[in-house]
Give the backbone structure.
Amino acid sequence: MTLFSFNLNAEDGPARRGRITTAHGTIETPAFMSVGTQATVKAMYPQQVRELGADIVLGNTYHLMLRPGAERVAALGGLHTFMNWPHPILTDSGGFQVMSLAKLRKLDESGVTFQSHIDGSRHVLSPERSIEIQGLLGSDIQMQLDECIKLPAERSEVERAMTLSLRWAERCKAAFQGREKGQALYGIVQGGTDKDLRRASAEALVDMDFQGYSVGGLAVGEPQEEMFATLDACVPFLPTSKPRYLMGVGTPDDLVGSVARGIDMFDCVMPTRAGRHGLAYTRRGKVNFRNARHADDPRPLDEESDCPAARDYSRAYLHHLVRTGETLGAMLLTWNNLWYYQSLMKTLRDAIEAGRFETVAAEVRAGWERGDLAARS
């Protein structure tokens, strides 16, 4: 069995270039994880996701425990086999979904009791059960159960959730003992945007000695500058020898700014969700295909792109697909968006290796500021 490991290969200021090794393959970092909430990256074939450059995808503990059920997935060979993805998989713990179910759940020291949003059935998700579910799914990287709260919030409430998450972290780590040695468990730093709470959370988790560390509870309502300030406050207290994962983030600008602060891993539904709603991400910023200005434009989204979705279909056709609600429109724009995100991450990895991160980051931002090609015609 291949042991989980992280090698830091290059640094350029706080920005890091590394490699994570798992039983199902390696992950080049900084890495963006496509979100496969229900064992599928929406509107994409697994092989397409891989061909775009993805080393790892994310599965969702909450959704998969409800449908089709963790025990069923295990009986069918585990999540890798079930979704035909033989490469690394990270599963989240269900904590974020618990936050979004405030009207359907009861939370206490033992865990969370909630009603299914599907059929109203009652379920209990404790730290131990979360780890058990992730073990049944067979993911390479698993997350502690935490409580994620919406911001802004009173400091007392943020501290309560942070300290509860630390107690749950200890229970998750105890439950994780005995799992396959090729798997890893990450702790999650909480504390809202309070610098002292973030530092306290980070230091406590480091003392527990997880295989990796995540920063959770951001991109939940706070401005970008507060998110970056929070990273500045807590990332320096995480060990350099282990991977750092910023959960649920974000826009391309969020990614560049967070890599600049030493983050190694990201996930977000944004590129796939945007694709389903007619929005494309490109080297010249965002393009909204619901806009009528594309209706008679024969040019591709980006003739310089290596992605067929951006290069081989006219803007007029993409506009038509989006306006008529055709499935192909969502497929093509999702394809483009995931290609762009993976291309951006490769650009940042290469820049760090070359010692040119700040220069390249400035060039990338300048491209966004110039705006969409069609807007300049």
Q: What stands out?
A: The chain has two domains: 5-268, 275-370. The mean pLDDT is 95. The longest helix spans residues 327-354. Residues 275-370 form one domain.
